[in-house]
């Protein structure tokens, strides 16, 4: 089945620790995205990538880093510089161009700080 | 800049009631419009979409029409079920692969 997978489902971070969230898609989509969701709020864009080895900052990129070494994969690292990382993180992917812009989402990773 | 505004929730309805969730947008161009649904603890699922003015998106009994003159994309369903209880997000994007701009979400609770 085609889709987007995220792992782990839950992740715990200690103070000063970097953690990496995985996102993989087998939809052959060119573009991938990371969003952050806080309770009772909409989603905010952290980073996105439209092509391998290139990515752009979203609205709240500070304290996060990404890589796009393969078309199928777009891991997100939450660094120790992110002072309030507790949130639900959602990965999405889409095609590019007219009629292909629909973004499809993974099941999410919930990050908690110990 | 572009933005999306949804009616505040929570919205509480009885089973088989009529549902309307209002969504209005401001846009500098001609975006595509979407409704997503999120069940507790899960990711977002695409519910329906419309890509140009006067298009009607529909799925699972839900409908929304892209109204350029009123900059609206209201979600409607004629008869809700308990299983429709979820958070609904209105969103817009353009076809160049940029971000989705979301409303704040509207929580729907349907009682038997």
Task: Describe, in plain words, how this protein is organized in 3D.
The complex is a heterodimer of chains A (114) and B (112). Chain A has 114 residues and is an all-beta fold. Chain A has strands at residues 4-7, 10-13, 19-25, 31-37, 43-51, 54-57, 64-66, 76-78, 87-94, 104-105, 109-113. The mean pLDDT of chain A is 93. Chain B contains no helices and 12 strands. In chain B, the strands form 3 sheets. In chain B, strands 2, 5, 6, 10, 11 and 12 form a 6-stranded mixed sheet that branches. A 4-stranded antiparallel sheet of chain B has the order 3-9-8-7, with no helix packed on it.
Topology:
The complex is a heterodimer of chains A (114) and B (112).
Chain A: E1 4-7, E2 10-13, E3 19-25, E4 31-37, E5 43-51, E6 54-57, E7 64-66, E8 76-78, E9 87-94, E10 104-105, E11 109-113
Parallel strand pairs in A: 2-11
Antiparallel strand pairs in A: 1-3, 3-8, 4-5, 4-9, 5-6, 7-8, 9-10, 9-11
Chain B: E1 3-6, E2 11-14, E3 19-21, E4 23-26, E5 32-38, E6 44-50, E7 56-59, E8 62-65, E9 75-77, E10 86-93, E11 101-102, E12 106-111
Parallel strand pairs in B: 2-12
Antiparallel strand pairs in B: 1-4, 3-9, 5-6, 5-10, 7-8, 8-9, 10-11, 10-12
């Amino acid at each position: 089945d085609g889709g987007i997978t995220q792992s782990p489902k839950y992740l715990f971070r200690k103070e000063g620790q970097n953690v990496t969230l995985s996102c993989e898609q087998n939809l052959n989509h060119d573009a991938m995205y990371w969003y952050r969701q806080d309770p009772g709020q909409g989603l905010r864009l952290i980073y996105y990538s439209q092509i391998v080895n290139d990515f752009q900052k979203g609205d709240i990129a500070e304290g996060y880093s990404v890589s796009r070494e393969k078309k199928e994969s777009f891991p997100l690292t939450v660094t120790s510089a992110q002072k309030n990382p507790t949130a639900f993180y959602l990965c999405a992917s889409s095609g590019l161009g007219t009629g292909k812009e629909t973004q499809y989402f993974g099941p999410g990773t919930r990050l908690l700080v110990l | 800049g572009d933005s999306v505004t949804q009616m505040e929730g929570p919205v509480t309805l009885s089973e088989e009631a009529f549902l309307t969730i209002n969504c209005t947008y401001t846009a500098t161009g001609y975006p595509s419009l979407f409704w997503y649904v999120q069940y507790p603890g899960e990711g977002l699922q695409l519910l329906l979409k419309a890509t140009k003015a006067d298009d009607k998106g529909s799925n699972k009994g839900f409908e929304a029409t892209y109204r350029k003159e009123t900059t609206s994309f209201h979600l409607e369903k004629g008869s809700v079920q308990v299983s429709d209880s979820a958070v609904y997000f209105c969103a817009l994007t353009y076809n160049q692969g940029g971000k989705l701009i979301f409303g704040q979400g509207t929580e729907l609770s349907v009682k038997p």
